[in-house]
Amino acid sequence: MGLHIKTIELVALGAAIGGNCIPCLEWHYKKCVELGIPKEEIKEAIEMANKVKQVPIKKINEVADKLLSETSE
């Protein structure tokens, strides 16, 4: 037997956020609620997805800042 359906839906919820897929987020949020996943657990999954999603934003901004500082005017 694989992952529990509740775990799968929480992972899918995070993936939807990571993929910027609004219809996916709405679908998987609804499924989480239907499965009786507590709002606090849903919130934790969303917060974790947002934390993970911030890493590439931080890194790209670091590279952009580095390039700007190396460029002579």
UniProtKB/TrEMBL annotation:
SUPFAM superfamilies: AhpD-like. GO terms for molecular function: peroxiredoxin activity. It comes from the Bacteria. Residues 6-49 form the Carboxymuconolactone decarboxylase-like domain. Pfam families: CMD. InterPro entries: AhpD-like, CMD-like. Keywords: Oxidoreductase, Peroxidase. The keyword Oxidoreductase applies. This is Alkylhydroperoxidase AhpD family core domain-containing protein. It comes from Caloramator quimbayensis.
